[in-house]
Design goal:
Layout (H helix, E strand, L loop, with lengths): L11 H14 L6 E2 L15 E6 L4 E5 L5 E2 L5 H20 L27 H15 L3 H13 L7 H10 L1 H12 L7 H12 L2 E2 L1 H12 L14 H14 L5 H7 L4 E3 L4 E6 L3 E6 L2 E2 L6 H14 L13 H6 L1
Antiparallel strand pairs: 1-9, 2-3, 2-8, 4-5, 6-7, 7-8
Helix pairs in contact: 1-11, 2-3, 2-9, 3-6, 3-7, 4-8, 5-7
The structure holds 6-diazenyl-5-OXO-L-norleucine.
């Protein structure tokens, strides 16, 4: 593993801003903790962590940023990136589309005509991706997935057995989706181990700092900013971030792109990871969710920081990142 010296960033104002935002949104108690996976209902609704990690490897944290929780749907862009690397865009595109569905993350629906799931961020698409990973790796799939997620986070991650068992016992809707996919030939018939892999990937334990490092790895073009390891190929990072921008916040994705304008992914345990290309990642943890399954405080924190720091991809303060721009200057 090639290690890389973080470029020291002396930015007390950024730490001050993060502390201030944490204080501002601590009183916000809108929303409810998810209980449809019974074990998630045990989360402390007051927990609230924020972490910003830069593509240069600097980390700024506030609140409960070391509290562990399960990654849930934030695993989806990372497994999508792995599947793209193994099978290539063309094959993956035959199995999963790239269109926002405009529907809830767990809706039981496939695209008219192609019978593909709409995109890899809704459960149907993510289960298809897990099935493809299982098809390729067999029983070694979880180990491969954990190794890749750990490389992105920069530390060894593991599965929360209690959350995994809880989702496995109650995940009837996801099993129904998997059988629908099987009916349309979108996945091979080893559907039980594939769904088991999906439940386990959702149950990987992270803290807010891990999520921010995983996001910073994407912001840093696929290379972990602290270890220096290349975790994802740069072209796949482009695919992952594109799909996060258009589909990462479910049926709030359009409003999110309009207001916040940063690729992001949320999870039902209350995590949220947003990525500013070549600059930084913002991660938050707060388990109270809005009606669409996104963390209420997480949305407010990201909106606030995007406005304050000009992070929106089309904000006039955002310097942008294309080579052409640099050449034209
Ligand atoms: O499939 C499920 O229901 C969960 N394991 C993951 C869903 C999720 O995180 C949706 N996010 N907002």
């Amino acid at each position: 593993m090639k290690s890389q010296q973080p470029q020291e960033l002396n930015a007390p104002w950024l730490q001050y801003l993060i502390d201030e935002v944490h204080d501002k949104y601590t009183p916000l108690t809108d929303g409810d903790v998810a209980t449809y996976i019974p074990e998630l209902g045990k989360a402390d609704p007051e927990d609230f962590g924020i972490c910003v990690a830069t593509s240069g490897g600097n980390v700024f944290e506030a609140g409960d940023s070391d509290r562990l929780f399960t990654i849930q749907s934030i695993s989806k862009p990372f497994t999508y990136g792995m599947a793209l690397e193994i099978f290539g865009q063309e094959k993956i595109f035959r199995h999963v589309g790239v269109e926002p569905s405009g529907d809830a993350f767990n809706s039981i629906e496939l695209e008219n005509g192609t019978n593909r799931p709409f995109n890899p961020m809704v459960n149907a698409g993510a289960i298809t991706v897990s099935a493809l990973l299982y098809e390729h790796y067999g029983d070694a799939a979880l180990e491969q997935l954990l190794a890749r997620f750990s490389a992105a986070a920069g530390r060894t991650l593991s599965v929360d057995e209690a959350v995994y068992q809880s989702e496995s016992r109650t995940g009837h809707r996801n099993r129904a989706i998997a059988h629908l996919l099987l009916n349309f030939g979108m996945v091979l018939d080893k559907i039980e181990p594939a769904i088991d892999l999906y439940f386990k990937q959702c149950s990987i334990l992270v803290n807010t700092r891990d999520l921010a490092m995983m996001g910073a790895t994407l912001a840093n073009l696929g290379r972990n900013p602290i270890t220096g390891e290349e975790v994802y190929n740069i072209d796949r990072v482009k695919d992952m971030l594109s799909i996060m921008l258009t589909c990462g916040m479910y049926d709030y994705s359009g409003q999110w792109a309009y207001k916040v304008g940063i690729p992001a992914k949320s999870g039902v345990s209350g995590g949220l990871m947003a990525v500013v290309n070549r600059q930084l990642s913002v991660a938050t943890y707060s388990p109270r969710l809005d009606k669409r399954g996104n963390s209420s405080r997480g949305i407010e924190v990201c909106t606030h920081l995007a406005n304050e720091l000009g992070l929106h991809v089309f904000d006039c303060m955002n310097a942008g990142s294309s080579y052409l721009k640099a050449m034209l200057e």
